[in-house]
């Protein structure tokens, strides 16, 4: 290769690298609500299996008094084979944290949890009966923690990213269920009981995020900033501006998408 061609190629590489590199950090926030009428999921009757409760709440679809929608997740998505952007230094402090999923009242808390591949998940049982869980992962090895009554626990690190949340079931109490998001990148949020979420210190630029909910999986259709979006597999581009808050406002999800 001639020297001039080599220099030109190097300059082009550096130029595109500069565009890819984040210049500053911003925040994404918003609030999920249901658009339309829908009844929350009915309580699940508990017939036997040694549980001293008659019914447990169905957490798959929880709706607030004004349509607030918890348990909507969004995470940064990059094309297969691409590297994630380097996270903000503030995320280093939680890189090795322990994330707890607790059996309490014969329900798993929280119903939707998030762990990074660098973190450890602690499965804990506070119920007066033993519990055996099955974590249904695609890329990570099968894992079935057996938890003794009144405080049994077991730790597990999920080292491989999962494309969709893992379903967690009980092999003893069939109504027990929850979901675990396993991602390499820390740029993940789960809406709270008010439907609100926030992701801080996102690299400036335009990024693709994937929307997902426990009742419908990928959120393909939603109303954002007054416009209905119909996105394949819940993928949506969000522009992040350095030193600013990108407020997506109230994001409306049609009730028909949640009525399973």
From TrEMBL:
InterPro entries: CarboxyPept-like_regulatory. It comes from the Bacteria. Residues 1-20 form the signal peptide. The keyword Signal applies. Keywords: Signal. This is Rhamnogalacturonan lyase domain-containing protein. It comes from Blastopirellula sediminis.
């Amino acid at each position: 290769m001639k020297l001039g061609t080599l220099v030109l190629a190097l300059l082009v590489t550096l130029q595109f690298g500069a565009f890819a590199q984040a210049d500053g950090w911003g925040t994404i926030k918003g609030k999920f609500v249901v658009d339309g009428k829908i009844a929350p999921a009915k309580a699940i009757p508990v017939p036997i299996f040694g549980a001293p409760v008659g019914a447990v709440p169905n957490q798959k679809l929880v709706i607030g008094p004004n349509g607030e929608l918890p348990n909507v997740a969004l995470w940064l998505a990059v094309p297969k084979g691409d590297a994630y952007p380097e996270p903000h230094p503030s995320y280093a402090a939680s890189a090795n944290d322990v994330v707890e999923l607790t059996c309490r009242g014969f329900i798993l808390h929280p119903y939707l949890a998030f762990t990074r591949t660098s973190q450890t998940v602690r499965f804990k049982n506070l119920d007066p009966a033993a519990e055996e869980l099955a974590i249904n992962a695609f890329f990570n090895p099968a894992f079935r923690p057996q938890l003794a009554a009144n405080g049994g626990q077991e730790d597990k690190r999920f080292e491989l990213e999962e494309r969709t949340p893992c379903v967690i079931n009980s092999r003893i109490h069939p109504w027990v269920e929850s979901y675990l998001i396993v991602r390499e990148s820390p740029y993940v949020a789960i809406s709270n009981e008010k439907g609100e979420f926030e992701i801080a210190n996102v690299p400036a630029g335009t990024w693709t995020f994937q929307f997902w909910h426990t009742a419908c999986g990928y959120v393909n259709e939603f109303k954002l900033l007054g416009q209905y979006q119909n996105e394949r597999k819940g993928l949506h581009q969000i522009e992040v501006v350095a030193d600013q808050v990108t407020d997506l406002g109230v994001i409306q999800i049609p009730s028909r998408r949640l009525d399973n």
